[in-house]
Write a structure and sequence with these properties.
Layout: H1 4-11, H2 14-44, H3 49-62, H4 64-81, H5 83-92, H6 96-109, H7 121-157, H8 161-184, H9 188-208, H10 219-238
Helix pairs in contact: 2-5, 4-5, 4-6, 6-7, 7-8, 9-10
Length: 239
């Protein structure tokens, strides 16, 4: 039976890095193409360059909080399934809890566990395969049904722009509320992060942004970081 160190050595070979890099580069190229398409569409729609720059900054800053969470999980996965595969999975999927759960369940189903001494090459292969299958469902659903969702949305709205906006807002609230409720149930630290982040966001929007309008685009990122910091402090104190 291979030792855990030997398994990790094989999982971090240059060939694996090269194979994983192909998919990551494709994902990066797609991001650049979407950015270029968005800029071109904005020019065709005669949207002010200032608005597009502001929107880009808001998206960039808002992504910092989730990216930190994904990065932390990626560091943990690197020590258990190999650095290249952790880099690949979280570069194209980004759902850190889902990937970690898939790897954990796959290792347990194979009679081992992440980081255990009986984590063999066969077990590592099972975890890789399980994570790949875990992402296939999302790709199939989005690939097959995404083109029809816009038609469904327009049909539900009946051409009324205000009603379409209400449907979109309600859908967003439902999705993020569902995701947030799942995280809150994981423990006090998660609940504290959600509550303090929400309070920080309300405080920033009501009290800080009116006096300093330039902070509008940074409010969400600041609130998320504040919530994460409160959760970390709680977990450290309660250890």
């Amino acid at each position: 039976m291979e030792s855990l160190q030997e398994v990790m050595r094989i999982g971090n070979q240059p060939m694996v890095w090269g194979l994983c890099a192909v998919t990551v580069v494709v994902s990066l190229v797609q991001s650049l193409l979407f950015t270029r398409l968005a800029k071109r569409t904005a020019r065709e729609a005669q949207i002010s360059p200032e608005i597009t720059k502001t929107a880009f900054r808001v998206g960039l800053i808002s992504a910092i909080g989730p990216a930190i969470g994904v990065f932390i999980v990626m560091v943990g996965l690197m020590a258990t399934i190999g650095s290249p595969m952790a880099w690949l999975r979280l570069s194209i999927i980004g759902a850190a809890p889902t990937e970690l759960t898939a790897a954990t369940l796959a290792a347990e189903a194979a009679g081992s566990g992440l980081g255990k001494e009986n984590f063999t090459l066969q077990v590592m292969a099972v975890t890789w395969f399980a994570m790949a299958l875990n992402g296939c469902g999302w790709l199939l659903v989005s690939g097959l049904f995404a083109p029809y969702l816009e038609k469904l949305r327009e049909k539900m709205g009946g051409g009324d722009t205000k009603w379409l906006a209400a449907i979109g807002g309600a859908a967003s609230l439902g999705v993020f509320g569902y995701l947030c409720s799942n995280e809150i149930r994981r423990g006090t630290g998660n609940m504290l992060a959600a509550l303090t982040g929400a309070v920080a966001m309300v405080f920033l929007v009501k009290c800080v942004v009116p006096k300093h309008p330039k902070l509008t685009e940074y409010a969400l990122g600041i609130a998320m970081l504040f919530g994460m910091a409160c959760a970390v402090i709680h977990d450290v104190v309660m250890m």
